[in-house]
Amino acid sequence: MFSFRTLSAAALICTLAGGSALAQTGNDVRIIPGADTVVWQPAPPMFPSGTRMSFLYGSADKAGPFTLRVMIPAGSVIPPHTHNMDEMLTVLGGSIHHYIGPAITADQDKVLTAGGFVHLPPNVPHALKAGTQGAIVQVSGTGPFTMTYVNPQDDPRHTNR
Question: Which residue from 17, 21, 47, 102 has the fewest beta carbons nearer than 10 Å?
């Protein structure tokens, strides 16, 4: 039987074994001991230039739960877009300006700092802008995940990133 004690022991073993970013048991437990063991890679081209991403669990393009982190450079904007699924976003570091609606307007600006959280049902248009120090956000949902820009010309894949 799996318990919190088992998870704590697995985390300790993982840390003592050289800080491995991944430990698995028969229960498909994944442990990332700290921020310094997160593996970052360039984000797909649908994100602003310089954005980095780390898939912590699952795959956003396959059925099932996933959790990923996104590192957004200071001042970068992700224009209004929608998702086909519920999105849960938590700010882990820095800050973001979050906007609800099909356009970025001052009256919709909500500043979120570390610990800030947003839940968005499917197909709610929203946008965000990283604060002056940039931002790290964690996104969780159930795939497959899609992202559709409200204005197709805002999609970075159609511009010179």
Answer: 17
